[in-house]
Fold these 2 entries.
Entry 1:
Amino acid sequence: MTTQQNRITDLFGIQYPIIQGGMVWCSGWRLASAVSNAGGLGLLGAGSMHPDKLLEHIHKMQDATERPWGINVPLMYPQIEELMDIIIHEGVKIVFTSAGSPKKYTSRLHEAGIKVAHVVSSSKFARKCEEAGVDAVVAEGFEAGGHNGREESTTITLLPLVRRATTLPLIAAGGIGSGQAMLAARALGAEGVQIGTLFAVSKESSAADSFKRKCLLLEEGDTMLALKKLSPTRLVRNDLYARIVEAEDRGASAEELHELLGKAASKRGIFEGDIENGELEIGQIVTSIQKIDSVTDIMSRLIREYDVARQQIIDNV
Ligand SMILES: Cc1cc2nc3c(=O)[nH]c(=O)nc-3n(C[C@H](O)[C@H](O)[C@H](O)COP(=O)(O)O)c2cc1C
């Protein structure tokens, strides 16, 4: 997958089929440009940016890399029309949409010459992507950090189902933290990978240092899927999480849960570093991270591991 060109590298014009997932409070121009400059595809995470902030990051991105890059747009974004206008006006070439129907914006983005990928958590939504005419589909298992599917399908279960449901170029997401995992995704029909957690904890991520340091201490079982009444989200088990679970156990309504979270809970946790009272989003694969590495170190490790693992399998056959 890494050394050969395939439909994903061709579609986006990148060297390696490694996509850095758009991530609220983590993936600004610094992280995204570092990934693109290392031969992957960096995505700005528009989900945590006001339109004027996104514009600023687009301009910085244009200065920081000449390689392909894109923007992740969660479709429940409140000022989405304004955001789409900026993206089209600024000549952005690649958009990854998530958390909504791919039907609504794909044709408008295509008319502007923009390539569109959409993130799904089930084969049903993968078929909707094909109907909507998207260029690639990201199948994200529930190991992943951030908001998650209600189906709770793991990546290893989801990939073959999505592969069977659509002929679209397929990108695997959720739980990928090594070249070996990339190879497994390849064996299950994916032509590329989207990685969030590893890059959220990288040097170039805009997350708070205390958040990154907390991530290094996490062990198995320290992240859980919560907030199923709102939007299922994988969270670190901190004080806020305990209060959420207590409220959920006594049958709290969606409104009560909103109130409990308070304003900008993910900003408080991930960006401002309030480790106990903020919402800390990170994936299960966080347990594999030993230190805060640079993007170039992460990228070269993934590529090296992939090539070695592939060769070992060939040699053993
Ligand atoms: C801190 C964090 C924030 C995220 N924010 C978003 C987001 O704004 N939009 C989105 O589509 N996915 C978001 N994700 C999901 C990632 O883009 C990616 O698909 C996922 O992290 C892949 O799984 P992994 O965490 O196991 O690598 C986020 C993930 C993390 C860890």
Entry 2:
Amino acid sequence: MEKLNIVIIGSGGHSKVVRDIISSKEDYCVKAVLDDKYDQLTSNGDIYTGPISSAQHIISLYEGIKFIIAIGNNEIRQSIVSKLGLSHESYISLVHETAVISPSAFVGSGTVIMANAVVQADAIIGRYTIINTSAIIEHDNCIGDYVHIAPRATLTGDVKVKHGCMIGAGATIIPGLSIGERSVIGAGSTVIHSIPSDCTAVGIPAKVINKNKRSMDS
Ligand SMILES: CC(C)(COP(=O)(O)OP(=O)(O)OC[C@H]1O[C@@H](n2cnc3c(N)ncnc32)[C@H](O)[C@@H]1OP(=O)(O)O)[C@@H](O)C(=O)NCCC(=O)NCCS
């Protein structure tokens, strides 16, 4: 069977989980892990490691190779996509075998859906987004690009999460609400009112503690 060759960008904790998903798929094969913590491109015979600037060289070695950016921080993911300048078709979307995705849901390229996540009917998930372990994305959700929905977050029906948001682990968002661009919802928070852009909101019920703050992942 001809395998689909893949480059993983990033080598931290999130990357380990992404690599496990790829390893579980018989028809996928990791050819390179690129991260700027590596000074130069080297190979152990099976896999190359090297700085992100080696991407074009790897592309020249493996025709049709695909990319996935395995970095949890939304802003860093976005800046790497922009620096690489590849087409959206150069990225794969990865779905763990235990995730449940409705046939009517849409998942954009470069997006990763982790173990036991559920994406229900007519949900739309943008590009380069992370739906982390056991997150629930209910029907008719619309999740933007470069979003991170952390483990066990629950987005009930008709929720909109705009570009660049971080929804913390175990947070809950009640139906029909909207989270504005780049906003951060604290771990364990319950959101009962829509949240504007560039805010951090925490607690039960979630209250805005910090306006005009950039999105972060920890
Ligand atoms: C919301 C969050 C980003 C805030 O981080 P921060 O900007 O560094 O804020 P601080 O830690 O300085 O906390 C500011 C205030 O908010 C409170 N707070 C922070 N996070 C909170 C949370 N999740 N729930 C309730 N209150 C919270 C703090 O107690 C503090 O209150 P105080 O001013 O009364 O002392 C962070 O706490 C968080 O929850 N991150 C999500 C992490 C996550 O789920 N990662 C998933 C990785 S896979």
